Amino acid sequence: MLDEKVIYDLTTFTHLDYPDHLACIVWFSGCNMRCDYCYNKDIVFSKTGKYSYNYVIDFLKSRQNLLDGVVLSGGEATSHNLIEFCKEIKKLGFKIKLDTNGTNPLHVDELINLNLLDYVALDYKAPKEKFTQITHSNKYDEFSDTLEMLIKSDIDFEVRTTLHRDLLDENDINNIASDLQKRGYN
What's the predicted TM-score (pTM) here? Predict the structure, then answer.
């Protein structure tokens, strides 16, 4: 399983993508959405990766005591089985941040329950009434389940959105903010 080539690319250093941590970014191939504003279309439409999990693990072994964490991004990282990979990352002493669209709540919940994640960045793509139009998916309920689960959990997380003036207006952003407030997101 760790020989599987599902990783599209590896950014070897970032100080921006994991708050207060020096990290690398693992970009997973493929995504279950087709967001109109996506800036990673090459990754999203890629059917295979260039690198294996083991390639990244070998890289991380050379970065122990130099990097603090690993960002799992994409595409959509939770479209892949992350458990064994995350276990190997944790054995090396790194923290793990997951960037996700939230459409695989059971996988995210399992990763949290196994203490394999330290931080989650959840993308709130659009308010419910525009979600399918913007993401070209019918996954709002799954996203909503992930958001609820994160709010009830003890894990550090943030909810974020992409501002695109041709797709989301002020009312949409206010609807997102109102929904988050109603759910108890601080």
Answer: 0.96
